[in-house]
Amino acid sequence: FDADVYAFALDKDDKMINNNTSLCFFNQVNIFNSAIKHSGDVRNGDTNGDVNAPDEYMTFSLNQIPTDIKKVMVICSIYNAPNNGKKFGQMNQMEATIINDGVKTAIIDMADNYGDKFSMEVLEFKRDSSDNWSITPLQNAGCYILNNYYAQYSK
Prior knowledge:
Layout: E1 3-10, E2 23-24, E3 30-31, E4 36-38, E5 58-60, E6 71-78, H1 81-84, E7 95-100, E8 103-109, H2 110-113, E9 119-127, E10 133-142, H3 146-153
Antiparallel strand pairs: 1-2, 1-6, 3-4, 4-5, 6-9, 7-8, 9-10
């Protein structure tokens, strides 16, 4: 299984500021001078034997994200799922762990709770008018590929 994580940086209209530089994922591992960073693509779930290590993860330095970005959507999906027939429920373990300031704030178990799906909006960072960020765990599961989300968030 190849589960991927990606982040869309969005403006006030929930659109990418620049379709080429507002998406962080396995082929573009950092955006906004590394304010949003991706760990790199892991295609087979290999964590070098460490069962507690994440396959893929992202880090965010919210105070370094440009002010015209009002929201960051974090999404996870199984690569090429419509063609390979893979779904979250077929994986031994598929979870999203949200760690804020070193503290686990949410764990979303996708394998047990969303077994018939292969994509999920996992997390939303949202900037308010005072430049403060809120973090909201989401569990919007579906059957979408990266291109579907890209089209939704493109200008």
